[in-house]
Design goal:
Blueprint lengths: L2 H22 L9 H22 L8 H25 L6 H23 L9 H20 L10 H21 L11 H27 L9
Length: 224
């Protein structure tokens, strides 16, 4: 089994575990932003299922269907993570900037999805969203520095989610940017596959951060 295939299947198992843990906390008291995280996990499962189906050549009618499906789900995930930051930083001085940047990011990513589907470009539509997520993480950290500390960060669910997003976007942005410079020739196929695997591993690690954040809900400070 190729490394990229193994990473996809391993990642699917991790996302399933994350989903099961999220179900355990589904009826428990928790912050509103976990509604967005829950649907983020579900969309991750759908992306994995779409990738596995595509790898097994289950899409026989039109090869653009799995590409469009994946890109729309990724766009939905960006919206969910943006809403997460809006909820977490709703009292922050950065809230207007987050809303404007999220709208602009979704617009640009949507246009890039159309461009990729109807052209032969190697631009990854989710690159602008990775950059925006990094900026949102910066806003979160900056807000923490500007506010009198009232939380123990190691027990803060929002903190671990933000760190996970920062890690995933921080790895995915430069790694996926490399695709533009790598030829599509067959001799470079293994290299492209390995780069794809690195980005996927970053997403897998983000789900471990999500699991950690759920475990933090056992602490009273995260229940409001």
């Amino acid at each position: 089994m190729k490394l990229s295939y193994f990473i996809v299947h391993f990642g699917t198992v991790v996302i399933v575990i994350t989903f099961v843990i999220s179900l355990f906390f589904l009826r428990k008291e928790k912050p509103r932003y976990y509604n967005y995280i829950f649907f983020y996990i579900i969309s991750g499962l759908l992306i994995s299922a779409n990738t596995i189906a595509n790898n097994n050549n289950s899409w026989l009618l039109n090869k653009k269907i799995p590409i469009l499906t994946e890109q729309l789900l990724l766009l939905f995930q960006v919206l969910l993570l943006g809403l997460f930051f809006i909820e977490v930083l709703k009292k922050s001085i950065f809230i207007k900037g987050i809303k404007y940047l999220l709208f602009l990011t979704l617009l640009i990513q949507g246009c890039l999805i159309i461009l990729v589907l109807y052209s032969n470009t190697e631009i990854k539509p989710f690159l602008p969203s990775n950059l925006s997520l990094l900026i949102f993480c910066f806003f979160y950290i900056k807000d923490l520095m500007n506010t009198k500390p009232t939380l123990t960060l190691t027990n803060s669910s929002a903190f671990w989610l933000t760190i996970g997003i920062f890690y995933s976007a921080g790895i995915s942005f430069p790694v996926n940017s490399l695709f533009i410079f790598i030829p599509k020739n067959p001799e470079y196929q293994d290299l492209r596959s390995q780069i794809f695997s690195i980005a996927n591993m970053a997403i897998i690690i983000f789900h471990f951060f999500i699991i950690k954040s759920y475990l933090c809900l056992k602490h009273q400070q995260n229940l409001s």
